C-alpha cells in the first residue's frame, strides 16, 4: 500500500489483495471514493487484425453509493448510464495513445466503482487506477499517466474541488497526461477567458507530474516484467517495397482535393499498388499482405500529409492553416417543430431541432452518483448516410453519446435560468453530412435552433475543431483551424473549442502523440478564438 497527498487529501494505491489473477490490479482510494482497476492482455493475437483491440469498461455500481436501482420490477443493473460511457471514454482517450498501435493482442481494462463519497469524483480516480494497473502489469505500455480536476473559485485555481467548491466554480477542467505532456482534456466552463484556462492547465499539469512520478515509483518497486506482444509487422524489406510502390503509384498527389476526389484517387492508387506488389512479392512475402499493406499505406499517407502541411502549409483541400471552410446558416427549415437550425461548414452539415416542453417533461436522472432533474437536453445522431456508408442503426454508441454531451455542455452557460424560462428544452442534432468537426457543427446548429425557437440565450455559442501536425525530429509544429476528416485521421491532435465572444464554454482534446505542452495549448486556443469569432460573425 502506498499513499500520496494530493490537493490536501490522501490518495492511496493498494495491490496484491484483490483480483490477483489479472495481469495488473489495483484499488485506488481518495477520500471515501474507491475504484478497482484491472488490466489483462490476451495470450494470442486477436482475430481482428485491422486495428489494436483495446477495450475499456467502466462499471458503475449502485452499492458504491448505498443505493438500490430505482425500477420496482428490475433491480439488476443493466446498460451503462451516459455518465459511465463518458468516463469510460475519458480513460480510453488517455491510455490509448501510449500503446504501440501495431499490437494485435486484445487488452481489456475494467474499472469498477466500489465506494463513492459524493465529494471526490470517481472519474479522475479511474484514470489514475487504470494507469497504475497497466504500469505494474505484464502489458507493454508507455505510461504512467495521471489525472486531476481543476476548478476556478473567485479567480483562484482549485485542484480536485469538492462538491461544494464545484458548485461555485466557473470552470470544470479534467486533465490527464504524463510527466512531460497533457494528452486528454475535457472541460465545461462559464465563458472563461483563454488565459485563465491556460493558468489552470499549468496548475493541473504540475500536480499530474507528482502523481505520475508516484505511480512510476510503485512500478519500479513491484512492477511485473513486460510480456512480448504480438505486433503486426512485415519484414523491413517487404514494408520498404510497399512504401516505394505506393510512392511510384502516385499516392502523394492523390491526397489533395475534396473528400470524394481524395477517396476516388486514393482507391485507384491502392489498386495500382496492390497489383504491382502481387507481381513483385513472393508467395511467402505476401503472408498477412492485406493487413500489413493497410498499415504501411496509412503510415505513408500520414508522412505525406504531415510533410506537406509542415513544410509547405499545403492542406489536403488547399486551405491556409487558419482558413475556415465556407459556412452557410439557415433557420426555420422544418415547418412544424418549435425551432430548427441548419449549419453547414464545408462538407459537414448538422440539422438541430428544438422542442420546448412543460416543466413536467424534465428528464429524471437516477445514477450511482446523482438523483436530479435535467431541463436542457441535447441528443446527437450520426446516421451512416452522413459519410456515404451502409451499416446497422442500433441506437447511440459511445461516440454519439460523447459528441452529444460535448455540444450540450457548450450551450449550458447561455441557457436562461428556470425562473425566467421554465420550459424543458430538448435539442436533437441530425448529422446529415460529415467530413470532420461534426460535434462543433452540432454546437453551432444548437445556437441557431434555440434562437429560432425564441429561447432567450444570453449569447450565441460557436465551436471549432483544431488540429496539429508535428515534426517529431525537429519539434516544429503547425496548428490547423477547422480540421476535416483526413487531418483528423492523420493529425496528432483534435482539440474542440466552443464558446462565446466572452470566453470558453467547452473543451475536448484527444491526441495520437504523447501530448501537448503549455505553448502548444496557448497557441491553439488563441488561433481557435480567431476561428470562433469568424464563425460567430456568420
TrEMBL record:
Enzyme Commission number: 2.7.7.8
Keywords on record: Nucleotidyltransferase, RNA-binding, Transferase
Protein name: Polyribonucleotide nucleotidyltransferase
Start and end residues of each Exoribonuclease phosphorolytic domain: 8-140, 143-206, 323-456
Domain of life from the UniProt record: Bacteria
Keyword RNA-binding among UniProt keywords: yes
Organism: candidate division KSB3 bacterium
Upper lineage: Bacteria, candidate division KSB3
Residues passing through the membrane, by range: none
Amino acid at each position: 500500500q502506498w499513499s500520496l497527498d494530493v490537493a490536501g487529501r490522501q490518495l492511496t494505491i493498494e495491490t496484491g489483495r484483490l483480483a490477483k489473477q489479472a495481469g495488473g490490479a489495483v484499488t485506488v482510494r481518495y477520500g471515501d471514493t474507491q475504484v478497482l482497476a484491472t488490466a489483462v492482455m490476451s495470450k494470442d493475437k486477436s482475430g481482428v487484425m485491422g486495428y489494436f483491440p483495446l477495450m475499456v469498461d467502466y462499471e458503475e455500481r449502485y452499492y458504491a453509493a448505498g443505493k438500490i436501482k430505482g425500477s420496482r420490477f428490475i433491480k439488476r443493473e443493466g446498460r451503462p448510464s451516459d455518465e459511465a460511457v463518458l468516463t469510460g471514454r475519458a480513460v480510453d482517450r488517455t491510455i490509448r495513445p501510449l500503446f504501440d498501435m501495431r499490437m494485435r493482442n486484445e487488452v481489456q481494462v475494467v474499472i469498477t466503482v466500489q465506494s463513492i463519497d459524493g465529494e471526490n469524483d470517481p472519474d479522475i480516480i479511474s484514470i489514475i487506477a487504470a494507469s497504475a494497473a497497466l504500469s505494474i502489469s505484464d502489458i507493454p505500455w508507455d505510461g504512467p499517466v495521471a489525472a486531476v480536476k481543476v476548478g476556478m473559485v473567485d479567480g483562484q485555481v482549485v485542484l480536485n474541488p469538492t462538491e461544494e467548491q464545484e458548485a461555485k466554480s466557473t470552470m470544470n477542467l479534467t486533465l490527464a497526461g504524463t510527466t512531460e505532456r497533457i494528452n486528454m482534456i475535457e472541460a465545461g466552463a462559464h465563458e472563461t477567458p483563454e488565459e485563465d484556462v491556460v493558468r489552470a492547465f499549468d496548475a493541473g499539469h504540475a500536480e499530474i507530474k507528482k502523481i505520475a512520478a508516484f505511480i512510476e515509483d510503485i512500478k519500479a518497486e513491484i512492477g511485473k516484467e513486460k510480456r512480448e506482444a504480438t505486433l503486426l509487422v512485415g519484414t523491413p524489406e517487404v514494408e520498404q517495397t510497399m512504401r516505394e510502390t505506393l510512392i511510384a503509384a502516385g499516392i502523394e498527389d492523390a491526397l489533395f482535393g475534396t473528400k470524394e476526389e481524395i477517396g476516388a484517387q486514393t482507391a485507384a492508387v491502392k489498386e495500382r499498388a496492390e497489383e504491382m506488389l502481387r507481381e513483385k512479392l513472393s508467395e511467402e512475402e505476401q503472408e498477412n499482405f492485406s493487413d500489413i499493406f493497410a498499415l504501411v499505406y496509412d503510415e505513408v499517407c500520414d508522412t505525406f500529409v504531415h510533410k506537406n502541411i509542415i513544410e509547405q502549409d499545403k492542406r489536403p483541400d488547399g486551405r491556409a492553416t487558419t482558413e475556415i471552410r465556407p459556412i452557410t446558416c439557415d433557420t426555420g427549415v422544418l415547418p412544424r417543430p418549435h425551432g430548427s437550425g441548419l449549419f453547414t461548414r464545408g462538407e459537414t452539415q448538422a440539422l438541430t431541432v428544438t422542442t420546448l416542453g412543460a416543466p413536467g417533461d424534465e428528464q429524471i436522472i437516477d445514477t450511482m452518483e446523482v438523483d436530479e432533474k435535467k431541463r436542457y437536453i441535447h441528443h446527437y445522431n450520426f446516421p451512416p448516410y452522413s459519410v456515404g456508408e451502409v451499416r446497422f442503426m442500433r441506437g447511440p454508441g459511445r461516440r454519439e453519446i460523447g459528441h452529444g454531451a460535448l455540444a450540450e455542455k457548450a450551450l449550458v452557460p447561455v441557457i436562461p435560468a428556470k425562473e425566467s424560462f421554465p420550459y424543458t428544452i430538448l435539442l436533437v442534432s441530425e448529422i446529415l453530412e460529415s467530413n470532420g468537426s461534426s460535434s462543433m457543427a452540432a454546437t453551432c446548429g444548437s445556437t441557431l435552433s434555440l434562437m429560432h425557437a425564441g429561447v432567450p440565450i444570453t449569447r450565441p455559442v460557436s465551436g471549432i475543431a483544431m488540429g496539429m501536425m508535428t515534426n517529431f525530429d525537429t519539434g516544429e509544429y503547425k496548428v490547423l483551424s477547422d480540421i476535416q476528416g483526413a487531418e483528423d485521421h492523420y493529425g496528432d491532435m483534435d482539440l474542440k473549442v466552443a464558446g462565446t465572444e466572452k470566453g470558453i464554454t467547452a473543451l475536448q482534446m484527444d491526441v495520437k502523440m504523447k501530448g501537448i505542452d503549455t505553448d502548444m495549448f496557448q497557441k491553439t486556443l488563441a488561433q481557435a478564438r480567431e476561428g470562433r469569432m469568424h464563425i460567430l460573425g456568420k
